[in-house]
Each structure stands twice: as C-alpha cells, then as structure tokens.
Design goal:
This protein has 6 helices and 7 strands. By secondary structure, the chain is an alpha/beta fold. Keywords: Oxidoreductase.
C-alpha cells in the first residue's frame, strides 16, 4: 500500500514542489494551505485552512485518515517571514508569525506523531531557515530566528524522544529560495547573500526533504541547503 505524506503550505513555492516530489515516489499526499485548490489527482487530497488553527490541524489529520487510512510522513513547510527593524514589529506581526511558524508546527505535529506511534514508524521534516545560524546584515530576522530557531531545537528534542519508537524527526534549513515571495528584480541582490553567489531553487529543498525521507539512519539532523551561508562568508 502506498505511503501517505501530509504537506503544509502546499499551494505554491517549496510546498508545491514537495507535493510533486512525493508523488514521483508514489506517495499519496494530503496537501494543505489557506488558499489551496481542489486536486484533479485522486492521490492528492487538498484541505484548505489556516494551519495555525488547531481545528485545521484536526481536520487535516481526520481527512487524511478517512481518505488514505494512514499517515507515514509530515512535512511542516508552512511559514511566514516578515523583515522589519525589530522595534517596528507590531503585535499583529508577532501574533501572525507565531501562529503560522510555531502553532502551525505544534498542533499538526502532535496529532501526526500520535498516529505514527500506533504504527511504530514515521518521519517528520520541518522547513526552517539558515538565518537562524547566520544572521545577515540588512535582513532583519528576529521573528524568523525566534520561531524557526525553536523548530530546529524542537527537531532535535523530538528526534531523541521518539528515536526508539521508530519515528525520525529532521529539518531542512534553506538559504534564500526562488519562490513567489521574492520578486525577480531582487534575485541578483539576494543571490549575493550566499557564498555560491546565487539563490536556491525550490527543487533544491524538495530534493533535500526526499533525501531525509529515504535516509533511514538519519534523525535529529538540521540539513543546511543554503549555498554555504551557514558555513561562513
């Protein structure tokens, strides 16, 4: 029977690429985001909703089990990034980033692991950011570091907690990736923020996630896919 993966933030950019990468491995996919459209592929179930809301997480898990009967993997890709000077963040900015980046991880990961425990197997991958390890002058990133840095730490903690229960937990830490979030005129300048001199592609992140999916002896890993940013400059 085909395995089943849940992908959050799945409507565009990295998330959409991850959905297709798993389909290429013959996984059935449960794809969720606020704006996701119905799928014409019977092996892709779409669930629209705000992943920062616990009710959405419950609905995603419930519909995944109803449609496909199992949950093997979860890719926590949903995230938002707001770059502002620290003192100009509003309470709304703070609440929005925490809701998506932290609540969006916590609620669905908790429910997914509970299902994986029943099978004694599973894999969680979260998409974080290389800015956690390597802050960049001119790219204000405190809220990203506060939230995505928390996910890196949680990844290691969960990996150890569930290592003997057959559940692996990893993260991919990207540099700046060509997604709809970044307008094309900014690409050259953003590319120069990486030692390799260019931005990454969504396929780079999807391939890293698939590597971790298939790497049976790897858990607690923060895999940097960042053109060398985290190594130095």
């Amino acid at each position: 029977m085909s395995k089943v993966v849940i992908v959050t933030g799945a409507s565009q950019g990295i998330g959409a690429a991850v959905v297709q990468a798993y389909r290429a491995l013959d996984y059935r996919v449960v794809a969720t985001s606020r704006s996701i459209q119905p799928s014409t592929d019977p092996n892709i179930l779409t669930v629209a909703g705000d992943i920062g809301d616990s009710a959405t997480a419950q609905r995603v898990i419930r519909e995944a089990l109803a449609a496909f009967g199992r949950i093997d993997s979860l890719v926590n890709n949903a995230g938002i990034f707001i770059a502002k000077p620290f003192t100009t963040y509003t309470q709304e900015d703070y609440a929005n980033v925490l809701a998506v980046n932290l609540n969006g991880f916590f609620y669905i990961t908790q429910l997914a692991i509970a299902e994986m425990e029943k099978r004694g197997a599973g894999h969680i991958v979260s998409v974080t950011t290389s800015l956690v390890d390597h802050a960049v002058d001119g790219v204000p990133s405190v809220l990203a570091s506060l939230t995505k840095g928390g996910l890196n730490s949680a990844t290691k903690s969960l990996a150890i907690e569930y290592a003997k229960r057959g559940i692996r937990v990893n993260a991919v830490s990207p540099g700046i990736i060509k997604t709809p979030m970044h307008a094309e005129p900014t690409h050259a300048a953003l590319g120069k923020l990486h030692p390799m001199g260019h931005m990454g592609e969504v396929s780079d992140i999807a391939q890293a996630i698939i590597y971790l999916e298939q790497a049976a002896f790897v858990t607690g890993e923060i895999l940097h896919v960042d053109g060398g940013q985290s190594a130095g400059h």
